[in-house]
Write a structure and sequence with these properties.
By secondary structure, the chain is α/β, with parallel strands linked by helices. It is built from ten helices and ten strands. The protein has an eight-stranded mixed beta sheet, sandwiched between helices. Belongs to the LysR transcriptional regulatory family.
Length: about 300
């Protein structure tokens, strides 16, 4: 039986993970034809078909999926070892690479990383991306941690990920401080306009359920899926918004906006996602434990 060629296995792994032979060839600085030939040689040596070629697409066969499981284990451990050798010296300054969902509240991010700002032995980098790129960054050990306000969808669920609730912020109706409504929702809100998070968000779903309870139909002026944009619209539109007060804390402190009322039992939840690995930086464990303990105390 032919000896396993780990270079070929690595090429297979990259193509299976990225899903695009042209992109992998570009990343590895080799020609597409040479990469394709290496994969064919690997399949020939192992006497197994790993891909089904349908036009320009490469789909994994049943054997390909099994080989991918082994390749994930082999190369993830290798990258984990490299990460440990690069970051794991206790006496040296530690660095964390943190990925954040592009739509996440900047005020929440600042609050989350505040312990790192106070630690002279820690440096960190922040990268804003979509959830798919963030999870790929975790899998490739480019990121140590991902912050999001969205739970991982069922089709993305994988034993590789560890998801922890690190904060739960109560939702409130917020609007211009010059025109506060004293009545409890929905009294007094009949002729007011709203700026709301996008329909696919948990906040919007929670508010929709609340409106349905009271048979209230909000007059929606605008909607957005980005917290930074919602913050600007809340400040400048004169409309009402449904947000955690932390998102617009500066505007509330300045007297531009005011909390009209907190909505009972409605929250925005923030999650920390990490990849399961043997070595986890001590500073990352400390940071997560701080926020988890704080959340547990507030929930009691």
């Amino acid at each position: 039986m032919s000896r396993l060629n780990y270079h070929h296995l690595y090429y297979f792994w990259r193509i299976a993970v990225v899903g695009n032979l042209t992109q992998v060839a570009k990343d590895l600085h080799i020609s597409q034809s040479a990469l394709s030939a290496q994969i064919k040689q690997f399949e020939h040596n192992m006497n197994v078909d790993l891909f089904e070629r349908k036009g320009r697409r490469l789909n994994l066969t049943i054997h390909g999926h099994r080989v991918l499981d082994y390749a994930n284990e082999i190369f993830s451990k290798g990258e984990e070892l490299e990460s440990f050798l690069r970051k794991g010296c206790i006496n040296e300054k530690q660095h964390l690479s943190i990925g954040v969902l592009t739509t996440l509240s900047r005020n929440f991010i600042e609050s989350f990383i505040s312990p790192l700002l106070e630690n002279p032995q820690v440096s960190f980098s922040l990268s804003s991306q979509g959830i798919t790129h963030l999870l790929n960054g975790l899998a490739n050990h480019e990121l140590d941690l991902v912050l999001t306000n969205q739970p991982i969808n069922s089709d993305q669920t994988d034993p590789l990920w560890q998801t922890q609730l690190v904060s739960k912020q109560p939702l409130a109706i917020i609007g211009p401080s010059s025109n506060i409504i004293d009545d409890n929702f929905p009294k007094g809100y009949q002729n007011r306009r709203w700026v709301l998070p996008a329909k696919n968000t948990e906040i919007r779903s929670s508010f929709h359920a609340l409106c349905a309870t009271y048979q209230y139909q909000p007059d929606i002026k605008a909607e957005a899926d980005d917290m930074a944009m919602l913050r600007l619209l809340a400040r400048d539109s004169g409309a009402l918004v449904v947000l955690p007060p932390v998102v617009v804390k500066d505007e509330i402190e300045q007297g531009v906006l005011a909390v009209y009322q907190h909505l009972p039992d409605l929250y925005e939840q923030f999650y920390a996602i990490t990849a399961q690995r043997k070595f986890v930086p001590e500073v990352l464990l400390t940071l997560l434990n701080q926020h988890i303990e704080t959340e547990q105390k507030q929930s009691k």
